[in-house]
Amino acid sequence: MRRKVKEAMNTHEKLYPDQRELNDLAIEDLKSLGNISPARPLALHVGYVLDGHHQNRGRYGRNYDYRLLAEEKKAVDREVSELAELALMLQNPEYIMDNSHQMSSENHQLAQEVLKHFIMKHGPQESQPHLEKELYDPLITALVDRIQDQESILELLLAHHMVKESEHTPDDYSSMLKAHFLFPAHKGRSEGHWGQNIPKIFAMLGGEGGV
Amino acid sequence: MAYSPSLFDVLLGIEQAIEESGSNIGKYLSLKEEEALKLMKQLEKAEKEARREEKDLRSNEQYEYNTLKKRDKEIDKQLGFWKHVPGAESALKKEQGEIQKRMAEISSEAIERFSENHSKNQNYAINEQNRLMKNEEDTLASRITSNDKSKEKHKKTPESELSDSAREQKRLWELIYDLPSTEEESSNLSEIEKEKGDQLLSWMTGGRGTDFLKSIPSAWLEAGEGLSGLLGAKDLKQKIREGKQAYEEKVGIADRDALNAQAGRLAGDIINPLGLIGKALKLPKLISKVPSFLKHLGSGSLYGAIQAEKDDEDPLTGAAIGAGASAILQGVGKGLSQAKKGKFEKIKKGATFTEPQEILQRTEVMGKGVTIPELVGDETLINKIKKDNSVFNKNRMGKIERNIKENAKKQMGELPKGEEELMELYGNLKDVRKEAGEATASLYDVVKESGIGSEGLLEKPLLKEWIQAIKRSQGEIKGLPKMKPNGAHIKDVEKLLMIAPDDPKAYRAFYIQNANHLPTAGDFLKYRSKVKNMLEKSGSAEVEGLTNLSENIERIIEGVDTTSSLAKANKAYKTKIAPLNQKDVKSAMTAASFAESKEGRPKISKVFGEQSNENNLVFKQLPTEDKKRVIGAFLEENLKNEKNPARAMLETWKKLPDYIKLTDDPEIKKIIEGMHSLSQVNQTLSSMQRSTTTDIGSRQAIDKAMKIGKWLGYGGSIFVNPTLTAGLGLVEGLAKGGMAARHALLRKGVGQKQLKHYLKPELLDELYSRKIIHLQKPIIKIQEQNKKKRGNYDNKRYRRDQYQ
């Protein structure tokens, strides 16, 4: 299979000799099939953002999973997924009500139950302060606690190894990595999603007065 | 319910994709692979047939072309010959012109046909790939439609349909995430800043904002100062502008790299969960998609290509682009030549860890040439080293050797060397000889006292009678003992007796000189007891002979002395003669005298080089410092031929006699073990240096080093080679410690606090009581249960303690 792809790519390369790098890229991508990691795109992307460009693909590609054991890779993936989920829930309560993700976690289920509970109990307008106190605060504390942990998996397993062969320090990298988890939370807060979308959710739940 | 997909959607999407696809991926892939293989076979068959036809055609053409060319050359030759013949030259030239014309025709036809076939083949391949792609697209589309209607939620909402807040949200996101690159965008930005600035600042200064602000690391987003810059700024507008400028300066907006960078980031954002599902499920699809994707890329910028594909709402295209974008994010665009370049530098670079002090210590201890696997046991680097072992090993060999030399020099420092030092030993050795001489004299006195021989010797007549008695019984008895346990046979003693002087003083001097071969009173008594033992154990055939011999021996004794004097002699032998071992002492002294007379001072290695009890006895009597001098003397001799201290030490250790190697003196024992360990380490490291690519990077080398470390006893006997031992111990300890820390970290990861730990227990209980939460038990109840369990345990322990 790979031979055939390579032949096709070689033909293409003859026609477009300046695209050799892309050629290699596609073949490498095929080779990496089966090693899909949820944390990988984020980890690499953070490196690119630090560089300000996407030119050092090879560097970060090589350094990702640099010396992690299989179980450590799983732990990194799990950690990133959980943090991403927390961040998304903070960004927009719509995500909390969204069940399209079949991999809904315990945190997600719990947040959904709490959200429903308060909206149905207090209505769309009055539930806002309760939700702020009983759900938004715990969510953001959970996220920040985990992000601030200096001995977290992200800090020790991912950030530490990703900066090898780059001019960045592990601190810079981990800060940038963590910042990416804070972006959605900040975005949701600054744009008032929690205030705006509660009536929608209320309407969806069958309440009156929704938008 | 629509929200704009972000990078985190992607992350969760990937995880979901992995779970959803599960084992079906493998089956599906294998099915698709079979299909693709069939296609490949068809393609190959068609290509083969085409090639065969072309070959036939080409061979005919080639034949014609060659014939024409041959004729063309002949004409060239003939032109000169026929130039004086009227009409001949012009005829030849005309023929040549026709030939050349035909040759050109053949060439052009061949080229045309080749290019035609080539494009035909290409078209065929592309058509087949498209057909396959279309089939797969249909399949996937039907699967997606039937399986998950909720995926429609992820469809992109057109810009015009966005609500005001959504549009503002998008703009703000771009403001922070992708800094604007055009003036138009910048002007829009200012408006947003005005509107959102107050909101940001008010949120920042009140309620959760302060805590949240504290949690934001300060070092992130250097280029634009990012979120912390925005939140911490009084003048938000200015901060954003500065960030934008910094970004533009760093990247250079106008050049193509910046466009690619922008496209890359965009790819990161638009990447769809379907992307990796598609990647996982649709290998053949991806194969067919790659050329077309690259075609897009070839026709314009990367950004354009992605943007073009992004607009396509076909989920399959989304899948392909997801795969393409993930490839971009995966950063695998390394060229082969690039990978080969500076491989060694990369390995070295990888060794610069963040704990320089620790690494420094380790390298100091193990030598700067120590391998990275030996330091950290890293498999990835092992693989790298496997690829390039030449330079790395060469350096490593040299450095390890230097390290061993240094250790050898340290050990050499403990051993005295030089003329003066060794002369001291000589003086002490004389004292030892004096002691030995006194012991010998006392032996003679004992023998004299026993009355067996004149002045302590076995007299000539006694020896002759003894020999006669043995000779008489020799024919009847097999395996008779020797007259002297260490060697002398009857013939040897007889020969000496033949030349022995009769004068008592002269006989005494003769006796001392030949003490190795002439039996003593002790030997005689030993012989007697051995014969008695043989008599008791022998069979009937030998009884008579042994009885006669025993009787004769007893008669000899009776003839010379009483039993009391014999008892005295026996006792003296056991207490004084046997432990001193007269022969050995005398031999050593003789050797020492010989060396002294010939070279001016004793050649220590010659005196002590022989493995014998006499040397052992003398060595034991020496003080520790002199023992060191003995070893130093051996080393000095080796240093004459070998300047490498490590090898000299190794050779010295090899030449030392066993009685020195096995000495009980603790100080000397340390030195010997140090030399031994040096030779062992040297040997092992040499084998490691010589090792090939297969075992250089493997764990074997490290294990071996660890074993040596253990053998050296870095737990207790550091003295052997303190630095190396400590180093090996340290490495092992660090390795163990590192693994333990990692495991602890993983355990911690598993036990991370989840949302329920932050929710109020009362709330959880309320949800639980109303059976809203089915999966979780209320926190308060859990706490109570735990408390109860702990209480029980404490009670049990208390009771157990009481009982005990």
What is the number of strand segments of chain A?
0
Largest sheet of chain B: none
Number of helices of chain A: 10
Oligomer: heterodimer
Radius of gyration of chain A: 22 Å
Helix content range of chain B: over 70%
Low-confidence stretches of chain B: 1-6, 17-33, 139-157, 168-183, 192-237, 250-394, 446-456, 579-588, 687-738, 793-804
Question: How do the helices and strands line up, and which of them pair or pack?
Answer:
The complex is a heterodimer of chains A (211) and B (804).
Chain A: H1 2-15, H2 20-31, H3 39-51, H4 57-63, H5 70-91, H6 93-97, H7 106-148, H8 153-162, H9 170-190, H10 193-204
Helix pairs in contact in A: 1-2, 3-9, 5-7, 5-8, 5-9, 7-9, 7-10, 8-9
Chain B: H1 7-21, H2 24-82, H3 88-147, H4 164-177, H5 183-205, H6 208-215, H7 226-232, H8 236-251, H9 256-270, H10 273-281, H11 283-299, H12 302-311, H13 315-330, H14 336-340, H15 343-350, H16 356-366, H17 372-376, H18 379-387, H19 390-413, H20 419-450, H21 460-474, H22 490-499, H23 504-513, H24 521-537, H25 540-560, H26 563-580, H27 582-599, H28 604-609, H29 613-621, H30 624-641, H31 645-655, H32 658-661, H33 666-690, H34 693-696, H35 699-712, H36 722-750, H37 761-769, H38 779-803
Helix pairs in contact in B: 1-10, 2-3, 3-11, 4-5, 5-6, 7-8, 9-12, 9-13, 10-13, 11-12, 11-13, 16-36, 19-31, 19-33, 20-26, 20-27, 20-30, 21-22, 21-25, 24-25, 27-29, 30-31, 31-33, 33-35, 35-36
